[in-house]
Design a protein that fits this description.
This protein is mainly alpha-helical and 190 residues long. It has a domain at 36-151: Winged helix-like DNA-binding domain superfamily/Winged helix DNA-binding domain (Arc Repressor Mutant, subunit A, Orthogonal Bundle), CATH 1.10.10. It has 6 helices and 3 strands; from the N terminus they run ααβααββαα. The chain has helices spanning 37-64, 68-79, 86-93, 97-109, 131-151, 157-184, and strands at residues 84-85, 113-118, 121-129. A 3-stranded antiparallel sheet has the order 1-3-2. The longest helix is centred in the N-terminal third of the chain and has 28 residues, at 37-64. The radius of gyration is 21 Å and the shape is globular.
């Protein structure tokens, strides 16, 4: 079977659909006819995720002068009005503590989040949205929802429902496999 080039080796296609601007190659473009259908499906899912994410990143930058990581951090805090510890934010965002600290520092300097001491732990503090941060996030979230609806608008309601159900099944299967592998390796909860 033919091996795929690593993502870092992806080049741009020579195709130029708009004013001479090359289309960046996507992970799916590296496939060949002899690749397994599961690999094709994985790369199709990955490519779709990248395409949507690129649009969201660009629109957040253009319309709100912000980044997706900043939006993601604020989204976590919006779901937890009492605030979250830095470690909780790091886990929820699946990034290092250093990344969360840097983003939090920026947002705090702009008055969008605040750090509050935790009463029973003098060393820890919770980060939460300020009223200004909540208003800013609400505006971004409304636009974000509109963008996602637009980006998925090429699928009808029935197609979106079927895709959602299939991806839900896949997610359940993947989580079950991960839990079984974790149990087999002795990495279960202690």
């Amino acid at each position: 079977m033919t091996k795929l080039a690593p993502p870092s080796a992806v080049r741009t296609r020579p195709a130029t659909p708009r004013a001479g601007v090359p289309i960046p190659a996507d992970p799916e473009s590296r496939l060949h006819d002899d690749h397994h259908e599961s690999l094709r499906l994985w790369l199709r899912l990955f490519t779709c995720t990248l395409l949507v994410e690129r649009q969201i990143r660009a629109r957040l930058r253009e319309e709100f002068a912000t980044t997706l990581p900043r939006f993601d951090l604020m989204a976590q805090l919006e779901r937890h009005p009492a605030g979250l510890r830095m470690g909780e934010l790091s886990q929820r965002m699946m990034v290092t503590g250093g990344n969360v600290t840097g983003i939090t520092d920026q947002l705090a300097a702009e008055g969008l989040v605040e750090r509050r001491p935790i009463a029973h732990d003098r060393r820890a503090y919770a980060v939460r949205l300020t009223p200004r941060g909540k208003r800013a996030f609400d505006a971004m979230a409304l636009a974000h929802e509109r963008w996602v609806i637009e980006l998925l608008g090429g699928l009808g309601a029935r197609e979106r429902g079927r895709l959602d159900a299939l991806l839900g099944r896949l997610k359940t299967t993947l989580r079950a496999r991960a839990a079984a592998a974790n149990d087999d390796s002795g990495g279960g909860s202690r």
